[in-house]
Specification:
This protein has 16 helices and 9 strands. It is α+β, with helices and mostly antiparallel strands. The radius of gyration is 23 Å and the shape is globular. The structure holds fe (ii) ion. Fe (ii) ion binds near residues 256 and 284.
Amino acid sequence: MARKTIRLEKAEQGLKLASAVVTVAGQRLLSAGVMLDEEKIQLLKKHGVRYIQVFEQTYDEPVDTQVFSEIIKNLGVTEAPSAAALEPPRSAKAVLPPAPPAPAAEDAQAKTERVRKKADEVRERLTEDKRKYSDKYGERYTSVSYTLGDPAPFSKSTPYAPYVDLLSLLARDMTDKLIFERKIDAETIQVLVKDIVSELSSHGSVMQLLTAAYSVSRYLLSHMVNVGLYSMRVASEMKLTQAEVTDITVGAILHDIGMVLIPVGFWTTRRELTPRARSEVQKHPELGAQLIRETPGTQEAWSLPALEHHERLDGSGYPSGKPAGKLSLASRIVQLCDVYEALTSDRSYRYAKFPDISMKHILGSPEQFDRDIAQVFCKCLGFYPEGYQVKLATGETAVVLSSNPKNVFRPVVKLLTDAAGTDVPPEAQLVLDLTNRLDLRVIEISNRRAIA
Ligand SMILES: [Fe+2]
């Protein structure tokens, strides 16, 4: 793995030391291979350390690049331009990004209005329940509420916002009902989620649906909703029935509900988990599945992703080490959506990884994640999702406007800077479809969202 020397003020949590840090007096402060966290960075600052050597990449697990290349081939796309690539002039006419499909024109507004009203109803009910649970359960409710976070209104103004809003509100409603009442109105949930699925599942741009970048709610609820949205999109793409997609979406939303039953102190830590904390946290799949199963009205299918989302195809996961043949389809979908969502989100102990690195991890670990599902996932989401700033092989930077399901490595981009790093004025920012520009290719994501 490549190493680089950086100034200490550039050090970030999650980076791994490539060599030991030793003071002038010969005192070893940290050993090679140690992952930096806030405490360790402060320790180095305290000792006046100015430079450290770190590994350039910090995958949680090494990626088998050979396996990755094979998968890329199976995706039917090429990462690099072919030798026979055409080299059209740089003044090639700018193309417009393909517009995302809009909801059917007929009664779209009425439908959106109905969903908005439903969301308002659930929001009101949640406010009432909040009061009720607070009075009845006191601190226990405050703690659960804090752990999950409140659903934040989806701020991006797309016609789909009310649907995502409703899904987040339902997610919080479901978790509260399961935990505090041990009952659930399954029929209403199925009807509403089916409605949401029929509207959102064929939507071309998963990124527009995601709440993570916009939500101000705390981590757990937005993680559960995002995994629900990813899983819904993948299941729809796999041409499952609407009822199956609905059940997988509900199961995906509930997959981490068991975490609410683990004391927060065990898992919201900046440090590596202690063995005791780890064994407590690893109980969450069984606790969550048990809670869902024991609640009248729930479906068996809803509890499987909760139970199996930390299992791995090679039997290396937990709680049971179940191998591939014994894992449900829903669980195999949720497993990789869960890992991708977790990798691409900030955590208390590390910063988010970029989507290309995270996707590479999923695609490059076929012994753990279902290869076919991973490919569908990559095609749905793209390797370079829209809104991210990318570096081109020419040294220019661009922002991804839309990804291309036929070739995930060749999105539609808009140039932001030239090779020298000088900003391109807005009126000169070319929009380029990289499927038509084989002289250009993306090397990597270089920044988080560049456009709102
Ligand atoms: Fe989990």
